[in-house]
Design a protein that fits this description.
Elements lengths: L1 E5 L2 E8 L5 E6 L11 H8 L3 E6 L18 H9 L10 H14 L5 E6 L1 H12 L4 E7 L13 H8 L8 H15 L8 H14 L3 H14 L14 E6 L7 H10 L4 E5 L11 H12 L5
Parallel strand pairs: 3-4, 3-5, 5-6, 6-7, 7-8
Antiparallel strand pairs: 1-2, 2-4
Length: 298
């Protein structure tokens, strides 16, 4: 892993694959460290002739933290947004898109295939709007357009979204929460072994346990609102939307609206997939990403 100055922060990143392969940038979701991208997923992309670049977003992992802001009150922020009031945040999704573009510049990469997952899918959309020259193709996975009026998470899923992450702050608590999270938003037809979930959660905890950053990522999303919706039609990068039919966190209409808002976009809906990347689905997902990349080779 390495660290580089980008804009007003330092960003941690890692690269897998051959130097002359097509650059592909992975943009993670709320509080997702670069090590959350599974080896099986990375290997599948490398096998398809991609040079895979993953990084810690600001406020995550080993990248710059915004400690001076403190944890975000996301419940209050959601209430402000529903009342159409301005929501204050230390940074926005546009800032995070600028970080991603800046990382490519720092690495000397003119353009990359950009894969945005969940909240990272929103960042990827903004990147494709604001930095079109940096985005060869775009894939938005389990993401939403952000348009007002789309279905929202409900019940236990909505409660999970805003509740504190591992409030005990313990390694065991992180493992328990990973199991609970998989139960709430994971893929119903492809449940992951509990032992794998607990092992991965322990690894993430040991690398960097920083729940305040996750809350501020959500705050950035709330503060950014639906401002990108009116500009989605400007996206020229060949675009693919991948969404689970059974995603309870970002229901399918969110992905469908991205597809319908970008004239040339394609949509892959996967039955039984929730808000995660089951190993059983990685070949299908990687094949679809490779096919989309062929539409806009760097």
């Amino acid at each position: 892993m390495a660290n580089v100055a980008v804009n007003d922060i330092h960003m941690e990143y890692e690269i897998w694959g051959e130097g002359n392969a097509q650059p592909l940038l992975l943009v993670g979701g709320l509080g997702v460290q670069l090590t959350r991208w599974s080896k099986s997923f990375r290997d599948a992309l490398v096998a398809r002739n991609f040079k895979v670049i993953a990084y810690d977003n600001r406020d995550t992992g080993f990248s710059t933290k915004h400690d001076d802001w403190g944890p975000a009150d996301t419940k209050a922020a959601f209430a402000q947004a529903r009342a159409k009031e301005a929501v204050s945040a230390p940074y926005t999704l546009a800032d995070m898109a600028g970080d991603a573009a800046g990382l490519l510049d720092a690495l000397g990469i003119e353009a990359a295939h950009v894969i945005g997952s969940s909240n990272g899918g929103a960042v990827a959309q903004i990147m494709a709007i604001e930095y079109p020259e940096k985005v060869a193709t775009m894939v938005a996975v389990m993401a939403t357009s952000g348009r007002r009026g789309l279905p929202r998470p409900e019940g236990e899923v909505a409660e999970w979204l805003t509740r504190p992450r591992n409030p005990a702050g313990t390694r065991e608590g992180a493992m328990d929460e990973a199991v609970d999270t998989a139960r709430i938003i994971g893929s119903p037809l492809f449940p992951r072994p509990e032992a794998d979930l607990r092992r991965e959660a322990a690894e993430q905890f040991d690398r960097c346990f920083y729940p305040a950053g996750s809350s501020r990522h959500l705050l950035a999303s709330i503060a950014s609102g639906d401002s990108r919706v009116a500009r989605l039609s400007e996206i020229t990068a060949p675009t693919l939307v991948i969404h689970g039919r059974d995603d309870p966190l970002i229901p399918l209409p969110g992905g469908e609206d991205i597809k319908n808002s970008i004239s040339h976009a394609a949509l892959l809906v996967i039955d039984g997939m929730g808000h995660d990347y089951p190993d059983e689905l990685i070949p299908e997902i990687a094949d679809a990403m490779e096919k989309n990349a062929l539409r806009g080779l760097v």
